[in-house]
Specification:
There is one protein chain. The chain is of the alpha+beta class and 236 residues long. It has nine helices and eight strands. The strands form three sheets. The chain has a three-stranded mixed beta sheet with strand order 1-2-8. The chain has a three-stranded antiparallel beta sheet with strand order 3-4-5, covered by helices on one side. The protein has a two-stranded antiparallel ribbon with strand order 6-7. Strand 3 and strand 4 form a beta hairpin. The longest helix has 14 residues, at 202-215. 35% of the residues are buried.
Length: 236
């Protein structure tokens, strides 16, 4: 757990309760965990019940992803190596770190320790096996499983810029290499309004979504909580 983000949780809860109304886990009815679910799903369901719940998603002012001189650059420059995220300050940008870690048989550009030019991926959102090359451009993109705008509305608005940059570049928990078109389709949606076409990935997706919220002390929107709970109850 990140203690610096944990310490902001009471402030976040206060701000969001004023902005949109929220309930603490103790004020919400907890559901019985189905006996047949996997241990990982059971753990995620328990984590889900520990989260602060937003009755609806607020629209917190100040979010702006762009980093031009006139923009807020809320989560820092894209794929920055200069953050406190795991693996930062290794001389490679975050996108290439993810490509190197998540592609099978990654190929580096000649003479480079960072730039990935090819590899194979069992793409989770579609279930297809993708033979990727750098010339394919955005056919594969790095997804923030909990979208940045969602995280901002769910508590990250109260974090420092450095804390938000660390979240945006966390390759171990937050980031996943996925089909570019599906990533664009997802936008900043939560699980109640968007899920991967590959239903075989639904359990893994929702488990990871909950783990991120819990690790970073973020709140969950009530509709997303209910949608996640319905999926996790089927994960055996």
């Amino acid at each position: 757990m990140l203690s610096r983000i944990r310490s902001a949780a009471p402030i976040v809860a206060l701000l969001l309760s004023v902005a949109s109304g929220c309930t603490s886990p103790s004020e919400d009815v907890k559901r019985t965990v189905p006996a047949a679910v996997s241990d990982e799903a059971r753990g995620a369901l328990n984590l889900l019940d520990s989260l602060t719940v937003l009755r609806k998603r607020p629209n917190i002012a100040g979010y702006e992803r762009g980093c031009s001189p006139s923009q807020a650059c809320t989560f820092g420059p894209a794929w920055s190596d200069d953050t406190s995220a795991p693996g930062s300050h290794n001389g490679c940008d975050t996108r290439n770190d993810v490509l190197l870690a998540q592609l099978r048989n990654p190929v580096l550009r000649a003479g480079s320790d960072c730039v990935v030019v090819a590899g194979e991926l069992d793409e989770p959102f579609t279930g297809r096996t993708v033979q990727w090359q750098k010339s394919d451009g955005g056919s594969l993109q790095v997804d923030h499983i909990v979208p940045l705008a969602y995280a901002y509305d769910a508590g990250a608005s109260a974090w420092t810029q450095d804390e938000r940059a660390a979240f945006a570049n966390d390759p171990d928990l937050v980031l996943l290499l996925v089909d570019g078109a599906q990533n664009q389709s997802k936008g900043d949606s939560g699980p109640s309004t968007w899920m991967p076409p590959n239903r075989g990935f639904w359990c893994d997706y929702d488990i990871r979504f909950v783990q991120i919220l819990a690790h970073y002390s973020l709140s969950v929107v009530a509709a997303d909580r209910d949608a996640i709970r319905s999926v996790l109850a089927t994960c055996d």
